[in-house]
Amino acid sequence: MAMRRLELRHVRKAFGGLDVLADISLSVGAGEFVSILGPSGAGKSTLFQLLTGAQHGEGEMFFDGTPLDDHGRHFAFMPQRDALMPWRRILDNTTLGLEVQGIRRKAARARVAPLFAEFGLAGFERHFPAQLSGGMRQRAALLRTVVQERDMLLLDEPFGALDALTRTAMQRWLEQMWRHHRWTALLITHDVREAVFLSDRIYVLSARPACIVREIKVPLPRPRSLGRADALQTSTIEAEILDILLNPEPNPHSSKGHDHD
Ligand SMILES: Nc1ncnc2c1ncn2[C@@H]1O[C@H](COP(=O)(O)OP(=O)(O)OP(=O)(O)O)[C@@H](O)[C@H]1O
């Protein structure tokens, strides 16, 4: 694996008496695309909250080999919903992360504007979010995330709200963009196909209280294709993951109780 950027060792998190993350150890290498796949409510978003510093847990988190402290410097986070501000034009939505960093709007616009074509948004700079399709809004949200030039992207189910066809188109587009930019990326998703299509490696989570039940390498060549060439290998990996998710082994951590729902 490439040089480790992010490493978590035995990370745990409980909310009051509710054990959410029981034991999470994982790593993401430089320029690697890694996914976390798990059942609904397993604690995937909670894990991202620990990474962004919105919540505090137990265990150890390292970035480039040193304890993770300045969360904002390392991570650019794209939430599940596009979270575009309806009253701001698309150009000024995509500058938001830079403005939060203290960059003046004019300078932020100058940095973002040249990227509109690459993100399929050329000509829509002065539109409002409601005037864009769901896929375009997600591309704008991703643009807002990547221009922050942090060390690593955290993507929380970025395509979950899109219809199946748009989602597939967006996955292809993201894979192409990732090949070009080689972002270090950690994706949360429920979607087995999406994880296999996009990832170099996948961590499969158990149900809550979550631990990692399997790490799966995805040896498919890039560029990835949805065509017949990779179909057999792709569906074999998907079947392996579905089997893990649908026939879980007993969770060694659930004996601690608190698992009420
Ligand atoms: N701030 C909080 N206070 C109390 N409980 C919380 C808090 N945040 C999350 N939880 C609980 O932690 C559990 C995991 O939530 P989380 O959103 O991390 O799961 P998830 O795997 O991202 O779910 P989904 O896939 O449905 O988005 C849930 O039972 C949730 O109710």
From TrEMBL:
Domain of life: Bacteria
Span of the signal peptide: none
Entries under Gene3D superfamilies matching the protein: P-loop containing nucleotide triphosphate hydrolases (3.40.50.300)
InterPro entries: AAA+_ATPase (IPR003593), ABC_transporter-like_ATP-bd (IPR003439), ABC_transporter-like_CS (IPR017871), ABC_transporter_ATP-bind (IPR050166), P-loop_NTPase (IPR027417)
Domain ABC transporter: 6-232
GO function term, MF aspect, one: ATP hydrolysis activity
PANTHER family, sorted: ABC TRANSPORTER ATP-BINDING PROTEIN, TAURINE IMPORT ATP-BINDING PROTEIN-RELATED
Family: Belongs to the ABC transporter superfamily.
Name this polypeptide is given: ABC-type nitrate/sulfonate/bicarbonate transport system ATPase subunit
Species of the source: Mesorhizobium sangaii
